[in-house]
Amino acid sequence: MSSELPFQVIGVGVVRNGAGEVLIDQRLNEGLLGGLWEFPGGKQEPGELIDETIRRELAEELAIEVEVGEELIVVEHAYSHKRLCFVVHLCTWLSGEPQPLASQQVRWVRPEQLGEYPFPAANAQIIAALLGAGTSFAAAS
Questions:
Q1: Which pLDDT value is given to residue 33?
Q2: pLDDT band at residue 16 under the 50/70/90 scheme
Q3: Hey, what domains does the chain have and what are their CATH numbers?
Q4: Would you report the helix, strand and coil content of the chain in percent, each value rounded to 5?
């Protein structure tokens, strides 16, 4: 008899700056997926709206303020020990210099450079959606 895997919703922010770059951070070496790069975000708290989750997590982990915009993609990913649902929103960087408070380092990169960084498997769909939305980025800014 199989038991249900724990399920967690993760709010993820694809943060853009005025130059059209996106913010990524490198996970700490400890633990699962250590050392890989990711888009910042974190676990949704009970009763919290997803845009509140993204704003809170980016303030806690990177010391930045963002405006949470449109949803980019929703990605479900199952690991051996849990199931995650990544709700990914495009965000605009408002203020604060990004600090790696919960990661090794943070970096602004051009979307077409994302392939040069090792990301967890679940991020491949986010990157594909981001690159697919690339033309609307230029139009929106």
A1: 85
A2: very high
A3: 7-140 (3.90.79.10)
A4: 25, 35, 40
**Listed residue (33, 100, 34, 118) closest to 61, CA to CA:** 100
- The model scores a pTM over 0.85: yes
Residue 102 CA to residue 56 CA, distance in Å, equals 13
Q: How far apart are CA 128 and CA 60, in angstroms?
A: 27
For residues 46-74, give the mean pLDDT: 97
Q: Write the CA distances from 44 to 26, 59, 109, 126, integer angstroms.
A: 21, 14, 26, 18
Q: Which amino acid is at 18?
A: G
- pLDDT for the residue 3: 63
